[in-house]
């Protein structure tokens, strides 16, 4: 079945360590997104990518980095510069690029990162 | 600036009772509107969407929503809730990017 796969589901890291969250989609979607979710704050956009080898910062990009070397993959690295990295991270995709008719967001199951 | 407001952070309701989750959006341009549901430690699942056409939109699990342009609202309703409807619900709007509300936690009481 087509969908978005995020891994790992749960991740524990020590302060100061970089961590990379994986996001793979087999929906043949053009655009991919990373959101951060904290209790009571809804979803906040970290980065998004509309085509391979191109990505843009979202509202809270500081302390994060991404790459888009393949259409199917959009990994997120949480760097040691991110001051409060403990959160639930959601990867999503849309069929088309940002436009008047980009379609709805399809979400992965999420990755919960806890920094000790 | 475009934003989405969910007026209730928590909504408790008894099983088999009706429920309405409120959502207002601010926009001076045409928008697409969505409701998503999230179960604990899972991703978001689309309940329904309004793109154009009929203002009454029906979704999965017996939910429906009504787009009201004059009141800039897109409230979600279900005539009779079930225990399994207990979850977090997010309203979202798309203008030139996606905007999410802060969520409403629906708790169905047996």
Tell me what you see in this structure:
- The complex is a heterodimer of chains A (116) and B (110).
- Chain A has 116 residues and is mostly beta strands.
- Helices cover 0% and strands 48% of the residues of chain A.
- In chain A, strands 2, 4, 5, 6, 9, 10 and 11 form a 7-stranded mixed β-sheet that branches. Chain A has a 4-stranded antiparallel β-sheet with strand order 1-3-8-7, with no helix packed on it.
- The mean pLDDT of chain A is 92.
- With 110 residues, chain B is mainly β.
- Helix content of chain B is 0%, strand content 55%.
- Chain B contains no helices and 12 strands.
- Chain B has strands at 3-6, 10-14, 19-21, 23-26, 32-38, 44-50, 56-58, 64-68, 73-78, 87-94, 98-100, 104-109.
- Chain B starts with a strand and ends with a strand.
SSE arrangement of chain B, N to C: EEEEEEEEEEEE
Cα-to-Cα separation, first versus last residue of chain B: 41 Å
Structural class of chain B: mainly beta
Helix content of chain B: under 10%
| β-strand amount of chain A | over 45%
In what range is the share of β-strand residues of chain B? over 45%
Low-confidence blocks of residues of chain B: none
Summed over residues and divided by their number, the pLDDT of chain A gives a mean of 92
The secondary structure category of chain A is mainly beta
Contiguous uncertain segments of 5+ residues of chain A: none
Broad shape of chain B: globular
Number of strands of chain B: 12
Q: Please, what is the average pLDDT of chain B?
A: 92
One letter per element, helices H and strands E, the order of chain A comes to EEEEEEEEEEE
